[in-house]
TrEMBL record:
Signal peptide: none
Active site: 85 (proton donor)
Domain Orotidine 5'-phosphate decarboxylase: 6-261
Record pathway: Pyrimidine metabolism; UMP biosynthesis via de novo pathway; UMP from orotate: step 2/2
Molecular-function GO term, any one: orotidine-5'-phosphate decarboxylase activity
Keywords: Decarboxylase, Lyase, Pyrimidine biosynthesis
Organism: Arthrobacter zhaoxinii
Pfam families tied to this protein: OMPdecase
Gene3D superfamilies: Aldolase class I
EC number: 4.1.1.23
Superkingdom to which the source organism belongs: Bacteria
Transmembrane segments: none
Entries under NCBIfam families matching the protein: pyrF_sub2
Record's protein name: Orotidine 5'-phosphate decarboxylase
Amino acid sequence: MDRRGQLCVGIDPHPGLLAEWGLNDDAAGLERFSRTVVEAVGEQVAALKPQVALYERHGSTGIAVLERLLAECADAGVLSIADAKRGDIGSTMAAYADAWLRDGSPLAADAVTLSPYLGFESLRPALDLAAETGRGVFVLALTSNPEGASVQHTGGPDSRSVAARIVDAAAAENVRPEAGAEPDLGSVGLVVGATVGTALADLDIDLAASRAPLLAPGLGAQGATAADLRRTFAAAYPNVLATSSRGILRAGPDLRSLREAALRTGAELASAR
Ligand SMILES: O=C(O)c1cc(=O)[nH]c(=O)n1[C@@H]1O[C@H](COP(=O)(O)O)[C@@H](O)[C@H]1O
C-alpha cells in the first residue's frame, strides 16, 4: 500500500460480466477474464482479490483456473487475497489454513478472508499459520451488506457488540511484544465495509488502535465513494485497502480502459477528504 496505494481490485467473474466481455461462462472464459485483470492492473495496484465462489461454480476446472491465477499474481508481484470467507471448528480450520496459507499449497494466497461465526478463537490454525508463513488473514467484522447488522451490531451481557469483540480480538493478535520493533500493521486484518456509515462510532470501535489492515469492500457497485471511506474510517483511513470488483471490471475487457478505471479510483482514494 505504501508503494502502490490503497486500491485492491476484486476479480469476480460473474456470468453477466463474462457475457459483457464477450466470453463464455466456462473455464476458458474464466481463464481469459482472470488473465486480463492481472495483465491490466497487476503491476499497478496493491492487491487482487479473486472471489473464490465464482471459480467454485465451475467445479474442478474453475479451481484449476484459480490455482493458476494465484500463481500469476505472485509472478506479477501483486498481493493476492483469496476471498473464500472460511470458518469452521478448529480441527477443520487447520485444513482450510493448509489450503490457503501453506507454502507450496496449490491454492496458496498472500491472504484469505475468514468468517468468525464459530468464534474468533476457532480461527487459531489460520492465524498461526499466517504468522508463520508471512501471510495474512482478513476477518469479517462489519460487512458491507445491509443484513450484517442484525448479527454484528448485537451485544452480549457486557453490551459490547459482536463486531467490537472481533475487532478487540484482532487487536490482541496484532500486539506481539516479543517482536521488538513492530511494523505499523499486524497480519490479522479486518473486513469493514465502506458502506457501514456511522456504525464504528455507534458501536464504540477504535479501528486505528487495532493495528489491523482494513479490507473495505463496497466501493463502486455497492454505492460507496472514496469520500465515504475517508469519513467512515477517519483516523484509521491510512490502514484501509479499499476493494472494488464490478465498479472496475465493467470497464473491461479493454486493457487500457481497465487500467484507467483502476488509476482513477486509486487517485480518488489518495485525494479523498
Ligand atoms: O470479504 C469481502 O471481500 C466482502 C465482504 C463484505 O462485507 N462485502 C463484500 O462485498 N465482500 C466481497 O467483495 C466483493 C464486492 O464486489 P463488488 O460489489 O462488485 O465491488 C464481492 O466479492 C463480495 O463477496
